[in-house]
Design a protein that fits this description.
Layout lengths: L7 H18 L3 E2 L2 E5 L4 E5 L4 E5 L2 H7 L6 H4 L7 E2 L5 E2 L7 H14 L1 H19 L2 H12 L4 H19 L9 H10 L5 H16 L5 H11 L7 H28 L5 H6 L3 H6 L11 H23 L4 H19 L3 H14 L1 H19 L3 H12 L4 H15 L6 H19 L3 H15 L8 H8 L3 H28 L1
Antiparallel strand pairs: 1-6, 2-3, 2-5, 3-4
Helix pairs in contact: 1-4, 1-17, 4-17, 5-15, 5-16, 5-17, 6-8, 6-14, 7-9, 7-11, 8-9, 9-11, 9-21, 10-20, 10-21, 11-23, 14-15, 17-22, 18-19, 19-21, 19-23, 20-21, 21-23
């Protein structure tokens, strides 16, 4: 009998318990943190037992060993507290109790309320749009036109999602595309792992090879005290290589499943063969979409293009994107001429369908809250830096990559990881005469690789959307991750000698 892994929420609750147990075993400690008070125009240093106000000046940053340009604070590029190098002190234990474990998911939902709201609004919009029938009509027409060329869908879409992740940091936004991509790929004869690999895999791959992502590359480079363009060419090359390797891997798997549905890992692990065989059935659809459906599809496309443009050029984030999808929902209802009562009912139904995904996101945030409240997150970082500081350059950079892989199990936020670790790692790099860009690259590669698996990231919500187990995903993605890990190690070794 096949044994399946527990549900995503159960896995995350288990991780919360492990994090709480760690607060009883790992000594508590904390770095001082520096934040910018824009109203008073001063720096505020939060120590373990006091708060100190310092002048807003580059000399203040230099005296603290923080090699970040002053203007990065006033411009809003650095918004989260920055760790002060050399300031780690041990604290009294704040071991997390049973009550803290129960409260962690709830605190996580509260702390992630903007993401949760975004997911619920997306659910309402997608369900409302699906009820119009325009999506089915459009996908049927597209599948007829792409018949025999389905591999190009994988190639083009994986590249686009990877580029979006590497250029501006697409992550949560990718969740909205499953409603479109799942039926499209099932019609092509592929299984449910293919849309996850294309959408989640593509955006996560962009994290690994980010070249202009403001939430990882730029913030991390600034926090490490280097120009973010340092290493840009190297990252562009890695982007091209890793994206090509990933596309080849997904296409080969998809073609194998299309030839033999029983070769599907989803079927072998979860027993979901019917969704594959049914998707290959022929359709008598003529390919005609109709005027109303064409208009609805244009609204659908325009909404996503507006979202992408808003994030890149107008610096939108979750509130603005949620507002966009709410507005688009009202426009779709107007075009369909449905009643107010039906609109509210349909929209709420869609939001309800995404509630499990929203709870998964909030619970994942609860893991970080337990580590932070227990004052062991900084201790883990401190001990990791102490253990790797005396190694030869090659061993140091490889060890640092592995350290970031481990850290990503607990801290899935790229910007949070950057401001927490880069000031400290940047100082160590200077002492060891290692290029700062390689410290940033080790951070990108580590987060990029482990991000494919970490339960505190977006993989569990993504799998929940398509009803595929984590066990099936691990079996599918592990060979690719080993290849990507080898490519990243070679890139780092070459980089420290350039």
């Amino acid at each position: 009998m096949k044994k399946n892994l527990p549900s995503p929420l159960t896995i995350l609750l288990f991780v919360v318990i492990l994090a709480a147990l760690a607060t009883w075993l790992i000594p508590a400690g904390k770095y001082d943190t520096l934040t910018y008070d824009s109203e008073q125009q001063v720096f505020v240093v939060q120590k373990s037992e006091s708060t100190v106000t310092l002048p807003y000046a580059q000399s203040t940053l230099d005296s603290l060993g923080i090699r970040i340009p002053l203007t990065n604070f006033s411009s809003g590029q650095i918004r989260k507290p920055v760790s002060v190098p050399g300031s780690y002190v041990q604290l009294e234990r704040n071991s997390q109790s049973f009550i803290d474990i129960l409260q962690a998911p709830l605190k996580g939902v509260i702390d992630s309320v903007d993401v949760v709201l975004f997911i619920l609004v997306i659910g309402g919009f997608i369900h409302l749009f699906n009820e119009s029938g325009a999506l089915v009509s459009g996908l049927t027409a597209l599948s007829l036109r792409m018949k025999g060329k389905e591999s190009w869908l994988i190639i083009i879409l994986t590249f686009l999602f990877s580029f979006a992740g590497a250029s501006y940091g697409m992550a949560e936004e990718g969740l909205v595309f499953y409603a479109v991509m799942v039926p499209l790929f099932l019609r092509a004869g592929y299984d449910l792992l293919v849309p996850v690999a294309v959408i989640f895999g593509g955006t996560q791959l962009g994290t690994l090879s980010s070249f202009t992502n403001p939430f990882s590359t730029i913030i991390a480079s600034n926090a490490a005290g280097i120009n973010w363009t340092d290493g840009l060419v190297q990252r562009l090359i890695l982007f091209a290589v890793t994206t090509a390797v990933t596309i080849i891997y997904i296409v080969r798997y998809a073609q194998k499943v299309k030839r033999n549905p029983e070769a599907s890992i989803v079927y072998q692990t979860d027993g979901l063969k019917p969704s594959i065989t049914e998707s290959t059935a022929t359709d008598d659809h003529t390919g005609s979409i109709g005027r109303k459906n064409t208009l609805l599809l244009l609204v659908f496309l325009a909404t996503f293009l507006t979202m992408i443009g808003g994030v890149i050029w107008l610096h939108w984030w979750l509130l603005e994107m949620s507002t966009l999808f709410l507005s688009a929902s009202i426009l779709v209802a107007f075009i369909q001429r449905i009643s107010e009562k039906k609109f509210i009912h349909t929209f709420v139904q869609g939001a309800e369908s995404m509630l499990a995904v929203a709870l998964i996101v909030g619970t994942a945030r609860g893991v970080s809250i337990v580590l932070s409240d227990g004052n062991i997150a900084d201790t883990i970082i401190y001990n990791a830096t102490q253990a790797t500081a005396g190694l030869p350059p090659v061993l140091f950079i490889i060890s640092l990559l592995l350290v970031f892989i481990v850290f990503t199990l607990f801290i899935a936020s790229s910007s949070g990881m950057a401001v927490l670790t880069m000031p400290i790692m940047g100082s160590i790099a200077t002492l060891m005469d290692i290029p700062g860009r390689e410290i940033v690259n080790a951070y990108l590669y580590g987060m990029g690789i482990m991000g494919f698996l970490t339960p505190t990231g977006l993989i569990l919500p993504s799998l929940a959307l398509v009803n595929v187990s984590l066990k099936a995903w691990i079996k599918f993605i592990t060979p690719l991750l080993l290849i990507l890990l080898g490519i990243c190690i070679i890139s780092l070794i070459i980089g420290i000698y350039l």
